[in-house]
Design goal:
Shape: globular
Helix content: 40-55%
Structural class: mainly alpha
Number of helices: 5
Radius of gyration: 13 Å
Distance between the termini: 18 Å
Number of domains: 1
Amino acid sequence: MSLTPEQKAATQRELAENFAKTGLTQAQVCADLRISAAKFDHIMTLTQTSLEDPWIMRNYLLEKVAAAGQTPVPFTALSGDWHRHWFLNSAAIDARQMSAGDR
């Protein structure tokens, strides 16, 4: 599934706003998710090749925003239950299993 340019821009904004609400640094997120800074950047800009990685980041950010006592910015395109999308590996998302490599 591809996002429209508008959906992509909104999702990038939603990821960035939720990341800011966590109060965490990029290094902390990378350590928690065991990813490189380059992979972090690819996910946040939606240039990551894996469709599951942005969903993993979304779920992680929502959890951390709540832990920080903040109200998350709702996601518009990455919304609902990822298990309902046939093209996603929901088991990888559930296990927070990021794809290998930086892309």
